[in-house]
Amino acid sequence: xxxxxxxxxxxxxxxxxxxxxxxxxxVAVGTAEIMDAxxxxxxVPWAVAEDFREALAATVTKSQEDRRVFDLLFDRFFxxxxxAEAVRRDIREERRYEGGERLDLDELRDAxxxxxxxxxxxxxxxxxxxxxxxxxxxxxxxGVVGVDVQRIRxxxxxxxxxRERRDGEPRLEREDVQAFERHLRRExxxxxxxxxxxxxxxxxxxxxDRALPTSPSQDLAAVHRAVAQLKRRLATLGHEQRGxxxxxxxDVRRTMRASLETGGVPLRLKHRPKRPRRPEIYVLCDVSxxxxxxxxxxxSVLHALHDSFRKLRSFVFIERISEVTEVFEHERDFRAIxxxxxxxxxxxxxxxxxxxxxVWLEFFEEIxxxxxxRSTVIVLGDAxxxxxxxxxxxxxxxxxxxxxxxxLNPEPRLYWNYGDSVMAAYERHCTATFECxxxxxxxxxxxxxxxxARVPE
Amino acid sequence: xxxxxxxxxxxxxHSLGRVGYLADEPAALxxxxxxxxxxxxxxxxxxxxxxxxLAKAISRASGRELIRLQCYEGLDEAKALYEWNYRKQxxxxxxxxxxxxxxxxxxxxAEEFLLSRPLLKAIASTEPVVLLIDExxxxxxxxxxxxxxxxxxxxxxIPELGVIEAVTHPVVVLTSNNSRExxxxxxxxxxxxxxxxxEVEREMEIVRLHAPELDERLARRLVEVIHMVRQLDxxxxxxxxxxxxxxxxxxxxxxxxxxxxxxxxxxxxxxxxRSDIALVAERVGVRLGxxxxxxxxxxxx
Lengths: 457, 301
What we know:
The complex is a heterodimer. By secondary structure, chain A is of the alpha/beta class. Chain A folds into 4 domains: 4-89; 99-196, no CATH class; 244-275, no CATH class; 280-449, von Willebrand factor, type A domain (Rossmann fold, 3-Layer(aba) Sandwich). Chain A has helices spanning 11-24, 31-43, 49-60, 64-89, 105-118, 121-137, 145-156, 174-196, 207-210, 220-236, 252-259, 292-308, 325-330, 334-344, 356-367, 392-401, 423-427, 439-449, and strands spanning 280-286, 312-317, 321-323, 375-380, 404-409, 432-435. In chain A, helix 12 (292-308) links the parallel strand 1 and strand 2. The longest helix of chain A has 26 residues, at 64-89. By secondary structure, chain B is of the alpha/beta class. Chain B has 3 domains: 9-76 and 121-194, Rossmann fold (3-Layer(aba) Sandwich), CATH 3.40.50; 82-116, no CATH class; 200-285. Helix content of chain B is 48%, strand content 13%. Chain B has helices at residues 9-18, 25-37, 51-62, 77-80, 86-95, 101-107, 118-124, 141-153, 184-188, 200-210, 216-231, 240-253, 260-266, 274-287, and strands at residues 41-44, 65-70, 82-84, 114-116, 129-134, 155-158, 162-165, 171-176, 191-194. A 5-stranded parallel sheet of chain B has the order 2-5-8-1-9, with helices on both faces. A two-stranded antiparallel ribbon of chain B has the order 3-4. In chain B, 37% of the residues are buried. Chains A and B meet through helix 2, helix 3, helix 4 and helix 10 of A and helix 2, helix 9 and strand 9 of B.
């Protein structure tokens, strides 16, 4: 058991407050974890920033997702704690970075690029201060942190693309530039706190901070990471259902066979293995403009599903519907798939607005015969009909024929049935509907279709 | 080799390095904490980043014996904890039929008739050990629940014998490929470590540690290619072990340049699926024709 006195007196309540904040963001930090953290901090030199952080992370976070929230909060919390203390005790950093006034823009740019390319935290922080000092002098600060960060970044030409790179300059990695932006933001906030003599109100991490990176310009790699994880889960889902389970059926033949070992006394019961459900899946994916941001993500989900379910047929639709199963089977690269779909799909007719009614009619005509009790239909779309006839009765017939019908809506449940969304008309005929705009939503859903969790029927 | 508790994180890092495992800062720190606090470590990460290797390295570095429990579907107590050797018990009963039930029934539940499985072995061992519970995510939840007693109190209750407590505190390492969510109860008892593919620099060091004769320039090139390959959407991205194998293969072949042709000939060492091979040949093979390899970021997702 750790002696709390081994840590400096101010630290313990602060750590507890930090854990409290983590709990507020949904990380399950129990008392046991906090005690572990104290014990761990007792064993490492807690004055070393990295050791402190890692020791804390190893004890209070228990998954990669937790770790991500931890990293987001850690910086913010201890930064705020330090600033609050500084304001309380009226400590000001009088000496701003000194070199700022003398440098001209080109030198500054070079210095900063060097610092970023080197990737050293301390140097980057100095560079950020230098940049802020230089821009403050030129009277270009807007007072709004976000705006200033972008302005400074643009003026310095800090991009990862090769176009603006001059000869001999080191290449910048995106992560490094982002790290530099973080420093800029931090330093600007610090300056703001000093100017206004109070802390800006603390903002909880909104759900959107953790939402799926859906817009194409955003980090596709993050989508891929989410999907890769999904693939692994899908690959093993259903397997955990096998093995020894209560309520399994006794396999008489194998039990008798095994009893030979023990002189005919059936000491060991052998059970019949449970076969996982192998559903036939039909996925219908809306690729119209109203769901552009989500459809990138949806397509990559389709991609993942294709790797895991052999009997999967996929369709995309806007005004018409078209089958794209083959495209997914022959092409592994995600970008090529989306290009091919937009080129050959032939789903947009005239207006480019989704026409759900017509899509159901077409789908029903082509596919209804193949649907049976073993089939699962999954619709990915926002149910926004653009004022056209939604034909819920056709959808109802579809879902009657299919064993299960699921609807994934990329909009938060709050927005359903507002405007031209007719979700309610379809929801009635679905086995279950899901909002799907974070990876967690997606995982919940995958658990359901793979037979992990039960759906209320 | 004597067993000592490490003094500092740097100590652990150094001793792991000495036995051929280059740990990064978090890994070293968690291994240090595991030995100091005696808490189990849960290591997660993609396949082939050295999760199992970490446990082996701790065992080598600290001079503790390694006891390994490989998990699989349907693994049960009988194979993980202990089992009564009922054949021997039967023989014992038959061999001395005149003796009454009273005399026999105490005797047949003695340690003599107990078959220790890895968990019991680790707990009962008089020498300090490292217990590796590999791929814990492959078992079912009931098994996890059973582990809780072992992991938090380091003891095992056997109804007929009573509680067996650990004499020496084992270092426990659990690995998981994250193929299913582990229970909260299990996670709460563990320190958590996420291992990912290493950065170029560190992987370079690892490759050069295991294939020291490899030219530095070639090693860098090799690691950069591996990183490019990992960026692709493959069924199975190459692991660290495969980079090392590849480095050794290049040495054997006497290759002094890693170009498209060499890649094509040796690609089967790093990618193991037919469709993956085609993809790598198409995406990476072409790039190798260029004079300098662009950094992995630009190969894009």
